[in-house]
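User: For a benchmark we're assembling, each entry needs the component sequences followed by a predicted structure for the full assembly. Here are entry 17's components. Please fill in the structure.
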Amino acid sequence: MIELQHISVNFGKCEILDDINANISEGHLTAVMGPNGCGKTTLLRCIGALLQPSSGQVLIDGIPVQNYSARALAQKVAFVRQQTQTDFDFSAFETVLMGRNPYQKRLQNESQADWDIVEQCMRKTNTWHLRFSTPHQMSGGELQRVMIARALAQQTPVLLMDEPVSNLDIAHQLEIMRLLRNDGGKTILIVIHDLNLALQFCDDLMLFHSGKLLYHGPINGGLTPNNIRTVYGVASHMADDRIIYDY
Amino acid sequence: MVRRMTGGKYKSGRANPWVVIGLTLLLVAAMAICSLFGAVDFEWEEIKDSPIFWQLRVPRVVMSVLVGAVLSVCGAAYQSIFRNPLTDPYVLGVSSGASLGAAVALLLGWGAIQWGVSSMALVTALLTVLLIYKIASIGNRMHTTTLLLTGVCFTLLISAVISFLMVMNHEKMDDIIFWTMGSFDPSRISWEDVEVMLPVSVVGIGVVLWYSRDLNLLLAGSEAAKSMGVEVEKVKRALLLFTTLMVAFAVSSCGVIGFVGLIVPHAVRLVVGSDNRKVVPYSMLCGSIFVLVCDTLARTVLRPGELPVGSLTSIIGAPMFIYLLYKSKKNY
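Assistant: Structure for entry 17:
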């Protein structure tokens, strides 16, 4: 469903991504991992057509993403960003309702169906009790969950998530990962830094190392002590299917 | 403000038709009443065949309504496009460009020619925005922060140039200052000006209303808006084009009327929330009423003299706005 063909991205002389080729398996939860600044966010932005790669192209359902209208793409791909901040006060409910935009006609009212979907997505992400709160009244983690609810409200087959759980406490991390795990059939790319959380919940791994795709395949085969040393420069070993770091 | 639930059902974020009808009726009533007062007061019976009323007073009233609507709608749109609560319709250099053109035209002695000053002001206003726009766009994309900064820089530069022009031409100083302060004086506004302004504002405001939900999404950020289905570059371009044209026409015929475009949308937001499907139409009507009332006061308070309406909008608007801010603070 998502094909990456020879994706390279340069910002000036700086090479962020270098000839990435991959076929992302439909319906899988894929962890996108690698050290800070290795191009994970850049890759997601290419897939979401927010950034035109310097060369190569991204195909979704066989069509290059640049050929989609914004509306059509928004019905295929939802994006949860790292940070979102605004000075204007939309309530959490209004924020999540924005996710319904790609299905609404201009000047048309929201339908009861839109409201029901919003409520459902907010209940799933445990944000329903925050529906009247404005961004200033919410904590970083609560706002992050509202953003996840907004992406779910887009009801897309593809979900791109840039560090969606980094701001959350452990209970909510597990809750969100479980939700993604069980939200049947979505193809999800998730940037995540917690190796064990990824190991526990994700199917596949895309491991990046200085702009190159070092490993793409089932996560168990990828998060080896050897790869971890190469990518992060950290020594580790496996015990009880957990990664333990050696200091 | 965000409590939208009544009996378990959500109310739409769209404008409430009753509020729109109510404000429209209020506006019409205010127009009828305000047009009676001025340097000369009229009675209902005598307006029928009074050329002063129909040729001087009515176009002035209509123009103040149009300009109030245009400035408020553009302010609301700019604050969403730039995601910056401090932006007003003049931030892209329209007002300074127009002032420079007007100053040059006045120095050239075009003050007596009909359309002389205003057409020059219109041309320089549009050229200034175009120049700022060119400088700030990289390739075919524009960077809104750069656009704002360039606009601010040009505004400062041009006001320096105008000061220089005034110092070099003492005798025209009053004319230039009077022009820039903004007024709906009959020496400037006639039916012809209204005939130009009316279609420009109807089309321009229509475009902003058409894109009002996209404006909501732009507030969430350009990338977020795009991934939720907004053709960001196209929408921004259309909005900037039409808002700039509207403001340029308004400024070139009436001068710089400050504060309206900044505070009217904010005041509306404080009452109804940030949803632009409400903010844009309500701002349009409230801005009209506000400028209409200010202009009526401007021509009656110091009769037979006139106050510049631009200073009145600030004197009345600022305390009202501070009060609203103070009141809304208590909700937190």
